[in-house]
Amino acid sequence: MPATTVGFSGSGASRRALRWALQSCASSARPLHVVVGPGGGHTDLDELLAEELERVPGREPPVDVTLTTDDPVHTLLRAAADGADLVLGCGRDAGARPTGDVLGPVLAAAPGPVVVVGPRAVLTPARRLLVVSSAQDAVTDWVLRRGRDLPVHLLTTWRAPLLADGGTGRRHAHLAAVAVHHTVRARLSAGTHRPVRAEVAEGELADVLPRRIGVGDLVVLAAPSLRALPLRTLRAPVVLVPGRVVRTVVDLREGVRTAG
């Protein structure tokens, strides 16, 4: 079983990411790989791991720690290439979008799903998947592969174009959203073999989604949708699923390049 990778720098954001990753791995019986970058405070990590493992309900997950002096972006991308998910923390000063020397470049080049734990996310094992519908099959594939045992709530948002022509543009926008919604719902229902709770809501995703999040939710959405989210205020971790497979080329001299 591939391991979940979490980046640890000693910051408060990385500590929250570590706590959530430990809880998630304990509930899914997945091993955890902790990557500690330069100056990451591995001495503090030993104590922190001991404390957090005592809080984990059930069986403790296997934990492997890698200390590196390399650039953390390169190390995390290499570790994530063969892993299940990559978990990173987002600090309070990240602004409306996830930015920073590590989080931003990793999100841009990650070969697989990235779980971002924001500063207001409730740290508890996932009890429900709040899936933002997308025409990209990768989102549905992730749910069926990793979360098929959890209840699923499918959310589809839409908004009318700014220049609606006599209601025609509004009607077309709504019909297009409903078509995607029904397709994704049918695939999720068939793959999970149970009904999927679903709703279509008018409005911007950034306005609608926060009102739908409950304790224990794990938000799943296509990575490009992150641009529309106030990540630092969301009360649930977010799984960002790439819409296509990204081949990551790591060159320690030239940095990280990506190609489709």
Question: Describe it for me?
Answer:
The protein is of the alpha/beta class. The chain folds into two domains: 4-121 and 246-259, HUPs (Rossmann fold), CATH 3.40.50; 128-214, HUPs (Rossmann fold). The protein has helices at 12-28, 42-55, 72-81, 103-109, 137-146, 168-192, 205-212, and strands spanning 4-8, 32-36, 63-67, 86-89, 114-117, 128-132, 152-158, 197-202, 217-222, 238-241, 247-251, 255-259. Strand 7 (152-158), helix 6 (168-192) and strand 8 form a beta-alpha-beta unit.
Summary of the model, kept short:
The chain has 260 residues and is an alpha/beta fold. It has helices at residues 12-28, 42-55, 72-81, 103-109, 137-146, 168-192, 205-212, and strands at 4-8, 32-36, 63-67, 86-89, 114-117, 128-132, 152-158, 197-202, 217-222, 238-241, 247-251, 255-259. The strands form two sheets. The chain has a ten-stranded mixed β-sheet, sandwiched between helices. It has a two-stranded antiparallel ribbon with strand order 11-12.
Portion of residues in helices? Answer: 25-40%
CATH architecture of the largest domain: 3-Layer(aba) Sandwich
The CATH superfamily name of the largest domain is HUPs
CATH topology of the largest domain: Rossmann fold
Shape: globular
